[in-house]
Write a structure and sequence with these properties.
Elements (H helix, E strand, L loop, with lengths): L1 E6 L7 H15 L4 E6 L1 H4 L6 H17 L8 E4 L5 H10 L4 H5 L2 H8 L6 H4 L1 H10 L5 E3 L5 H18 L8 E3 L29 H9 L17 H8 L3 H13 L4 H15 L1 H10 L3 H30 L9
Parallel strand pairs: 1-2, 2-3, 4-5
Helix pairs in contact: 3-14, 4-8, 4-15, 8-9, 10-13, 11-12, 11-13
Bound molecules: adenosine-5'-tetraphosphate (AQP).
Length: 327
């Protein structure tokens, strides 16, 4: 089985990225899948317009992934922008994509509703994503539940291309989503997302993490009373607990007797404990950027070998580029 997925270097790596996507990357690494993971810097261009910052963020995300356990010897870890076939395929896919399909995208509509500027790049994000995943003949794409609709759109675009050109040129892969995780809520209860300012960043300073958790908004329910359901505090605590502990948190939440501050301390402790080894490794890696750069270059070479083959097949069928040599 071949899998492909990406993460945007548009801000610090957060708990939603980890539980929705990265944890699956780590599971698949031990499951003998051939895996390609890219730093989605072309996607990040929809929100970051500062070259130095984006370059540093890409390297920082690579360090985060390796510190969390991704092994660049076993998987191809690379920058999306190192594969020129990606934007080429995206353009071809854009020519078969109805605008209405993109306008129905939840992520696009949510971002407009939150006042983000509606650039053509933001609207056509799923087309670029379709190129990212169709270019490698992948079987599956490990993603968080928030990306399921984009993946359906990508599959639909791939099917349209095959139909237009009359051949099975690209292979629409399926989504791999962890049902138990669903969409990880942010501190305000909406989806945890880099652009919403509601994240728990895995490599943030410990004092800052604790401060953010203590700042989660709660109501005035007294310590001894049952707490109302639907709080991101309980949801986050459950996600970081074993099934038995989660059951106990749910029980005490509904029974009363534990105050919000105690739950907040537990959440902060779980988070710090869970990622303490990765945080130490991350500090070591930040002193060796040249190692990360060379891993990214090697990853790009591996990914590009597949991308060239798929793009060769697709571009020939589309009638663009110099044809393969005669005879
Ligand atoms: N809250 C989440 N719950 C579950 N999975 C999530 N993922 C992201 N947020 C959650 C998964 O992480 C992978 C990489 O996501 P991304 O870099 O595209 O997403 P992001 O960090 O949340 O960024 P946004 O909000 O989508 O975009 P920007 O940067 O514009 O804020 C994906 O597999 C995603 O499902």
């Amino acid at each position: 089985m071949r899998v492909v997925s990406g993460i945007q270097p548009s801000g610090p790596t957060h708990l939603g990225n980890y539980l929705g996507a990265i944890e699956q990357f780590l599971d698949l690494q031990t499951a003998a899948a051939e895996a390609l993971y890219f730093i989605a810097d072309l996607h990040a261009l929809t929100t970051v317009h500062d070259g130095q910052r984006l370059h540093a963020a890409s390297l920082s995300l690579a360090a985060d992934l390796v510190a969390l356990g991704l092994d660049p010897e076993r998987v191809a870890l690379f920058r999306q922008s190192d594969i020129p076939e990606v934007p080429a395929l995206a353009w071809l896919l854009a020519t078969v994509t109805p605008v209405g399909l993109l306008e129905r995208g939840h992520a696009y509509k949510d971002k407009l509703a939150r006042g983000l500027s509606g650039s053509a790049g933001l609207l056509t994000y799923p087309v670029l994503m379709a190129a990212d995943i169709l270019l490698y003949d992948a079987d599956a794409v490990p993603v968080g539940a928030d990306q399921q609709q984009h993946l359906e759109i990508a599959r639909e675009i791939g099917t349209k291309l095959n139909r237009k050109l009359g051949a099975l040129l690209v292979k629409p892969p399926r989504a791999l989503v962890k049902p138990a995780v669903a969409i990880v809520p942010g501190l305000d209860g909406t989806k945890m997302s880099k652009s919403y300012g509601n994240t728990l960043d895995l490599f943030a300073d410990e004092a800052e993490l604790r401060r953010r958790i203590m700042g989660i908004q709660t109501d005035s329910t007294p310590v001894e009373a049952p707490k109302p359901l639907g709080s991101p505090l309980l949801a986050l605590l459950e996600l970081l607990s074993s099934p038995e502990e989660a059951e106990e948190h749910r029980r005490s939440w509904s029974a009363g007797g534990v105050g919000y501050a105690a739950y907040k301390h537990r959440l902060a402790d779980r988070l710090v404990e869970r990622f303490s080894a990765a945080r130490a490794q991350r500090r070591r890696l930040s002193e060796r950027p040249e190692l990360l750069e060379s891993s990214l270059r090697r990853g790009a070479e591996r990914a590009r070998a597949i991308a060239r083959e798929v793009w060769g097949r697709v571009s020939t069928a589309a009638g663009i580029g110099s044809p393969p040599a005669f005879g």
